Amino acid sequence: MSFSSSSVSSHPLAVYGWDEGWEAEFAPYAEQGLLPGRVVRVDRGLCDVITPVGTVRADTEFVVPRDPMKVVCTGDWVAVDPDGSDPLYVRTLLPRRTAFVRSTSSKRSEGQVLATNIDHVVICVSLAVELDLGRIERFLALAMSSSNGEALLHKSALSWESGAQPVVVLTKADLVPDAVTLAYLVQDVETTAPGVPVLTASATRGEGLDVLSAVVGGGTSVLLGQSGAGKSTLANALLGEDVLEVQAARDVDGKGRHTTTTRNLLALPGGGVLIDTPGLRGVGLWDAEVGVGQVFSEIEELSERCRFHDCAHESEPGCAVRSAVDAGELPVRRLESYRKLMRENQWIVAKTDARLRAEIKKDWKRKGAQGRAAMEAKRGRWR
């Protein structure tokens, strides 16, 4: 079955991202008389879905999965019963193209899907407080690793494994005293995020919004960041009206309360779709080895020149990474951050991989034995 581009572009859901691909995916359900729709908000088993006949309230009872990664989420495309109940029922979830996932705070091996079918991950970082480069690296690692869990997508522009291009936006730029300082801050973040666009914006002054609007004007973008990063203020500026509630951040640490408590999908007046999310206090990695590798691409490239293929970049002879640190070519902070994220991701994966857990325990025992042997050697010299 083929679909004309003109019929798709004139579809009532075109402004929400409906395209030929989604029309093809939905075709079997259209034959059953179901309505296509995109989830704009989820709240305790119910969701608001924008459909060709308007926004409807729908129950997700019929698509409650055993896998928490397949729970209906903001950004999903679904098939809805056209009538017969109030609320209506979501009958099925269309396959996701991408999903932004973080690990939960529980000890169980679960991920939490924050947004789906996204094209841009906009990481908001407030300039009202000191930059936390490690947190930016963490957000980027997640952004570059998100996928639909079945097949990783590739974008020709930058070939991010997530299929969604990350963008860092330094918000509240009006609080930086001068242009020279702002330029240094941008440079610091660009070094931390190689290959990622770094933009500055001031929602209160309207500065930088034209560039950001051009970036998010096509496809679906999700705003991520800590509470107080200015996500809701930025979203309102892009929307051209005060749709989302805004609260002032604390002067002490620049942090804010969770102004946004749900994830909301909103159509932008200049084109594109925006998903605003609550501020994230914890940003746990979820199967993010690919993302970590891309964020620290210079370390990955250096490691290819190490003498041993499994070099841990600690005390092994012929380590190209350590040599770069000693020569001042690689900041110690970057290496320490890389190690930390790789260890954390390894533990996340090990929760569901018995073989990897055994390898980690074996490595611990080996390092413990080496440490004890080193201590015994020192004691022998002291005697």
What is the radius of gyration computed over CA atoms, rounded to a whole number of angstroms?
A: 23 Å
Largest sheet: 6 strands, mixed
Which ranges are low-confidence, i.e. pLDDT below 50, for 5 or more consecutive residues? Answer: 148-162, 249-254
Top CATH class of the largest domain: Alpha Beta
Strand line-up in the sheet with most strands: 10-9-8-11-13-12
Order of helices and strands: HHEEEEEEEEHEHEHEHEEHHHHH
Which CATH architecture of the largest domain is right? 3-Layer(aba) Sandwich
Helix content: 25-40%
Counted by DSSP, the helix tally is 11
Average the pLDDT over all residues and give the rounded result.
Answer: 79
The CATH homologous superfamily of the largest domain = P-loop containing nucleotide triphosphate hydrolases
How many beta-strand runs? 13
Distance between the termini: 84 Å
CATH topology of the largest domain: Rossmann fold
Shape: globular
Strand content is 15-25%
Brief digest:
It contains eleven helices and 13 strands. By secondary structure, it is of the alpha/beta class. Strands 10-9-8-11-13-12 form a six-stranded mixed sheet, with helices on both faces. Strands 1-2-3-5-4 form a five-stranded mixed beta barrel.
Q: How would you describe the overall organization of this protein?
A:
With 383 residues, this protein is an alpha/beta fold. It folds into three domains: 5-93, Beta Barrel (OB fold (Dihydrolipoamide Acetyltransferase, E2P)); 99-103 and 115-276, 3-Layer(aba) Sandwich (Rossmann fold), CATH 3.40.50; 289-382, Probable gtpase engc, domain 3 (Ribonucleotide Reductase Protein R1, domain 1), CATH 1.10.40.50. Helix content is 33%, strand content 19%. The chain contains eleven helices and 13 strands. The strands form three sheets. The protein has a six-stranded mixed β-sheet with strand order 10-9-8-11-13-12, sandwiched between helices. The protein has a five-stranded mixed barrel with strand order 1-2-3-5-4. Helix 3 (133-143) links the parallel strand 8 (120-126) and strand 9 (165-171). The radius of gyration is 23 Å and the shape is globular. The termini are far apart.
